TrEMBL record:
It comes from Apiospora kogelbergensis. Accessory subunit of the mitochondrial membrane respiratory chain NADH dehydrogenase (Complex I), that is believed not to be involved in catalysis. Complex I functions in the transfer of electrons from NADH to the respiratory chain. The immediate electron acceptor for the enzyme is believed to be ubiquinone. This is NADH dehydrogenase [ubiquinone] 1 beta subcomplex subunit 7. PANTHER family: NADH DEHYDROGENASE [UBIQUINONE] 1 BETA SUBCOMPLEX SUBUNIT 7 (PTHR20900:SF0), NADH:UBIQUINONE OXIDOREDUCTASE B18-LIKE SUBUNIT (PTHR20900). Its main location: mitochondrion. Keywords: Disulfide bond, Electron transport, Membrane, Mitochondrion, Mitochondrion inner membrane, Respiratory chain, Transport. The keyword Metal-binding does not apply. It is a peripheral membrane protein. Belongs to the complex I NDUFB7 subunit family. The keyword Zinc does not apply. It is found in: Mitochondrion inner membrane; Mitochondrion intermembrane space. GO terms for cellular component: mitochondrial inner membrane; mitochondrial intermembrane space. InterPro entries: NDUB7.
Amino acid sequence: MAGSSAESLPKATREEMREAKLPIQYRDGCANLLIPLNRCRQDSYYLPWKCGDERHSYEKCQYEEFKKRVVKMNELRAAKEGARSN
């Protein structure tokens, strides 16, 4: 899906991620959605029924990133097998 909401938001800078105290493994293309999600979670004492919109946006972004990685990996595998057959 081109033009998803995660692509329209500006990416979080390294300084913003550091100020939000995001662990290194979460500093990816979806960090701009994780920062407000974590802020909402802290403000609502991690109640599971709160912050649903933020969580949904973040999880959708993570899924889209996963699908991009799968496509890229399949392309690399196809190129590797194509090189072997020659």
